[in-house]
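=== Structure Prediction Worksheet ===
Name of assembly: unnamed complex
Input type: mixed (protein and possibly other molecules)
Chain count: two
Listed entries:
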Amino acid sequence: METVKAEMTRRVAFVTEEDDLVQAYDSMQALRIQHVPVVREGKVVGILSDRDVLLHAHKRHGKIEVRTTKVREAMVTDVAVCSPTTSIGSAVDLMLERHIHCLPVINQDQSLVGIITTTDLLRLLRDREWRVELPIPFRFEKPSFLMGLAA
Amino acid sequence: MPKVREYMTPTPRSVAAESSLHGVQQLMRHHRVRHLPVKKGETLVGIISDRSVKSALGSAGGDGLTAEDIMIPDPFSVAPQTNLDEVVAAMAEEKYGSALIQDDDGKLVGIFTTVDACRALRQVLETFYPDRH
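=== Predicted Assembly ===
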């Protein structure tokens, strides 16, 4: 079984609820990421996407200006998560069901250990070995007429 | 190697370049889609994501803006017979949310989004690991 552990990103960028929203957005743009977990004392309490920021912002002279200042005011708190041992299939199902593009990965004590995103899944699909050798679904047997010829 | 046409969403919805921003937003909400190709007549000219819409709505409410004002021109597009791994590789590398599928005549025949990619991956897992995914 393929698990999230093998495909997740382990060095996860994160923010805290009290971080400045514009700084968080600028960091996401610089890192080319679209989601960051929001962490309090090592535990995930929310998720912030660039879409969430844009909903609270407007652009002026190419720079965004926000109506709110803290990450806390724009983050989503209803966060779907998974564990390192979650199967890839279950993670994909959860993303499709919730219409989301990432899952923070947490361990047993709820602390953040990684993140898996649709970009990771695209790479997994890209690297998939399509010419898998499937087991042959029958047993070889000597054809009886050949046995007769041999005799 | 499977082709992108096997996993794309055929005959995707699109908007006219002159559509209002609010019309685009309503269409996205109604059909629950995050990407809409933009056409001028039958010619594909761009794509709008929900990110573009949210960004534009933040700018003074987006009054007076049209699809053409907020679209991303020259969207990533491929032929239906393109290998799936090539398409997903480009999407992962460039962080594209979708690929538009155009036939030899330039006609828009499909769209392949990250949601379609998730479904493709799901199908692969079910095919090769039916009891273990």
